[in-house]
Structures are given as structure tokens and as C-alpha cells.
Amino acid sequence: MGNRERRTVFVTVGTTCFDALVKAVDSSQVKEALLQKGYTDLVIQMGRGTYVPSKVSRDGTLQVDYFTFSPSIADYVRDTSLVISHAGSGSIFETLRRGEPLIVVVNEDLMDNHQSELAEELAARKHLFCARPQTLGDTIQRMGIDTLTPYVPGDAKPVVTLINKFLGFPDD
Fold first, then answer.
1. Any idea where the Glycosyl transferase family 28 C-terminal domain is (predicted)?
2. Tell me: the pLDDT tens digits for 93-113?
């Protein structure tokens, strides 16, 4: 193992079932893209999902581990180099507040998908990258973490404007 620095990718689906995301992360395309970007470990929080990822990567260089639930994802987010998350606002803002690079993967199986609008708006503001399960590998290959803008909590106005837009209220 030597003194090679560990670079962990943490994947979270929150309390939901989002097997499409876990399957995407478990695919050889995504694992290959992560390896090419220099990541060494993959920790998957799989929630209520039934799809179980494989612990051994094809060439054995990406260390994979998974679990179902944790009382807090904060410990995992703190020790990570990249977070791949479902589009739940709690997971998104917890990760952004910690200043970690984030790819939000939108669950297209959810009918009423306000989450995708939030993720796309934050992606447009360059706070995170937005993907679908089927585009995750390409997103990882193309992402430039240095292009992200830190999210500064405290300025509520843009978020309030966004929420008002979702609820159909006019702008001030």
C-alpha cells in the first residue's frame, strides 16, 4: 500500500431507495472514471436499496465499502474528497456547507421532482455538478473540481427566491 494518499468518494442516498445510483456507482465505467481522477476508496451509503454493490473492483485498486444507514453522514463527508449524493436538500446543503466537491445525481423515478430543479439551479451557480444515473461516468470524467464556486451559507436571499419560485410566488 505504501504512503499513497487515500482519496475517498462518499456516495449517499439518504433514507431513500435509489438503486439506480448505487448500480451506476458500482459500474465499471464509473469506477474507471474515479480511478482515472485519482480516487482510491469508494464508500456507499445505500439506504433502503436492495442492490448490493460489489466490494472488489475489477483490478482491485478501488477499495469499496458500503452500509445502509448512519445517524449522521457528517463524519463520512468530513473524511472525503468527493461526495456523490441523491438530490435531497439535506444531503446537498450539508455537503456544500462543509465545502466538499459534490455531484448530485437526480432520481428520475421520483414523480414530483423539485429536487432536480434545486440541483440544476445550484449546478448553474457552479456550486456542484448535476448528473443522472446514466450520465454519472461522463460527469466524473468531465468535471473540473477547480471550476466549482464555494457555497456561502448565510445569504438566504437566493434560496428564498428559489423556494418562492417553486411555490409559485412572485419575485419581490
1. 8-143
2. 889 988 999 999 998 887 666
pTM of the model: 0.85
Q: Which of 12, 139, 144, 128 is nearest to 118 (CA)?
A: 128
Supply 141's cell numbers.
Answer: 470524467
Check if the beta carbon of residue 50 is closer than 8 Å to that of residue 20. no
pLDDT at 166 over 80: no
Measured CA distances, 88 to 26, 41, 141, 156 (Å): 21, 23, 23, 18
Q: Which letter, b or e, does each residue of 35-55 get, where b requires 16 or more Cβ atoms within 10 Å of its Cβ?
A: beeebbbbbbbbbebeeebee
Spatial distance between the Cα atoms of 130 and 139, rounded to a whole number of angstroms:
8
- List of domains in the chain: 8-167 (3.40.50.2000)
Instruction: Decide: 83 and 12 in contact? Cβ < 8 Å.
Output: yes
Q: What is the DSSP secondary-structure string of 115-156?
A: HHHHHHHHHHTTSSEEE-GGGHHHHHHH--GGGPPPP-TT--
- Could you give the maximum distance between any two Cα atoms of the chain, in Å? 58
